[in-house]
């Protein structure tokens, strides 16, 4: 497998959401208590545990820019958590998701439709490897396939 890293949202942004209570749209963040699966933190890239408080906020994705740019709803631990930094490990929140969408973009931030695909989270490695191995690919984002929320960006190392 091509060397890669799942790129969580920057710590400065997580801390800003926690400190100000406002998201990237200037809207108040929502608070949710974890009562089941489906609360993936985009900073530590782990699922919220039952009883933990999560923030729900709108995040402006750094890539792609241009016509494919989009904001995304994200969950984030309300408490401080450690940013995911591991190399060559698919993020736990991707592996835990029922169905994910792998989206690839080139250096001009245009979508490479031929590389797009959906897979069950635990079976997403081949789709990711196909994207990582393609020399056109500069940016990769993995989203939940049903609501379409960003789970994590992925970078080639
Ligand atoms: Zn977290």
Short description, anyone?
The protein has helices spanning 11-20, 92-95, 125-133, and strands at residues 4-7, 30-33, 53-60, 71-77, 100-105, 117-119, 139-144, 150-156. The chain has 157 residues and is of the alpha+beta class.
How would you describe this structure to a colleague?
A hairpin with a 5-residue loop joins β7 and β8 (150-156). The strands form 2 sheets. The protein has a 5-stranded antiparallel β-sheet with strand order 1-8-7-5-6, covered by helices on one side. A 3-stranded antiparallel β-sheet has the order 2-3-4, with helices on one face. The protein has one domain (4-156). It has helices spanning 11-20, 92-95, 125-133, and strands spanning 4-7, 30-33, 53-60, 71-77, 100-105, 117-119, 139-144, 150-156. The N and C termini lie close together (11 Å). The protein is an alpha+beta fold.
Q: Secondary-structure blueprint of this entry?
A:
Layout lengths: L3 E4 L3 H10 L9 E4 L19 E8 L10 E7 L14 H4 L4 E6 L11 E3 L5 H9 L5 E6 L5 E7 L1
Antiparallel strand pairs: 1-8, 2-3, 3-4, 5-6, 5-7, 7-8
Bound molecules: zinc ion.
């Amino acid at each position: 497998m091509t060397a890669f890293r799942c790129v969580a949202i920057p710590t400065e942004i997580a801390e800003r959401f926690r400190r100000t209570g406002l998201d990237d749209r200037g809207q108040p963040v929502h608070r949710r208590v974890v009562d089941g699966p489906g609360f993936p933190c985009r900073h530590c890239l782990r699922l919220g545990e039952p009883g933990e408080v999560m923030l729900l906020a709108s995040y402006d994705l750094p890539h792609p820019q241009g016509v494919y740019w989009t904001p995304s709803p994200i969950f984030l631990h309300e408490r401080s958590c450690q940013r995911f930094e591991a190399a060559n490990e698919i993020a736990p929140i991707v592996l835990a998701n029922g169905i994910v969408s792998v989206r690839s973009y080139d250096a001009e931030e245009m979508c490479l439709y031929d590389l797009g695909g959906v897979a069950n989270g635990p079976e997403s490695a081949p789709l990711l490897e196909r994207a990582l191995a393609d020399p056109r690919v500069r940016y990769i984002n993995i989203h939940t396939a049903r609501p379409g929320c960003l789970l994590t960006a992925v970078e080639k190392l």
